[in-house]
Amino acid sequence: MIADLLLGASVCSLFASLIPACYRDYRYRKIPVATWKFAAMVGIPLSFASFLIRVVTGSISPDAVPMLVGIALVAAAAAFALGYIEVFGGADSIAIIIIMLTLFYVPIANSLFVFAFINNTVIVCLLIFLAIFAKNVVERNYRDLSIRQFPLMFVGTKIPFAHFTTYHGIVLEEVTAEDGALSRRFMDFSRNFRMERDRFTTAIAASEQADLYRQAGKVWVMYVLPFIIPITAGLAVTLGVGDVVQILLHL
């Protein structure tokens, strides 16, 4: 009973940090480190206390402790490494590490929490990419793309210049003026766009190129996914439903 109450309070503190982080990630794509203080300083200690009680009372076998802790530490280390090499943002890395260190022992039917959380988060991301693809199909944006560029249908879309100040993305087309006529071409996809902050929509809107993009109409922009949202959704599905992959496999 006490262990369950401690775990419940830990989960609440976790979402108390994740929910405002989702808003800030969606609105600004920037999350202050202070956002995670409540989850880290309250959620992790409460969860650790619950874990110890469960081990002492036998609801978690002592033999399972090394495996549970080991998997959680490996997952947390992987999240740190992926954040370090900028596969995803630092805030995303922090969120995953805190989740792993807080809920690694939570029982999930036919699965382990770490695997269920990863599976569900990946599924949420895939659904987002499919929604972007469906939007592009409806708008017939595929007419602009070569076969090599077709993957953009899943990660980007065309937006007008008027949305540049509110849309968080990386501009993939370069617009220039040649002999009084506008010329546009796709940027080299091999380049590291994540590091090129001058290609962000907000940067273009404030640059000398703004008038050219305004005249060009809609241009292709690669969406910068607010990854905290699928992380939070994946966690909610894991705690509320379980491992969706395992559920589908056992139908």
Structural overview:
This protein has helices at residues 2-27, 37-57, 65-84, 90-103, 113-138, 152-155, 201-205, 210-216, 228-240, 244-249; strands at residues 156-159, 169-171, 173-178, 181-186, 219-223. With 251 residues, the chain is mainly alpha-helical. The chain folds into 2 domains: 2-107; 111-251, no CATH class. β3 and β4 (181-186) form a beta hairpin. α1 packs antiparallel against α2 (37-57). It is elongated and about 80 Å long. It starts with a helix and ends with a helix.
Question: How are the secondary structure elements laid out?
Answer:
Elements: H1 2-27, H2 37-57, H3 65-84, H4 90-103, H5 113-138, H6 152-155, E1 156-159, E2 169-171, E3 173-178, E4 181-186, H7 201-205, H8 210-216, E5 219-223, H9 228-240, H10 244-249
Antiparallel strand pairs: 1-5, 2-5, 3-4
Helix pairs in contact: 1-2, 1-4, 2-4, 3-4, 5-9
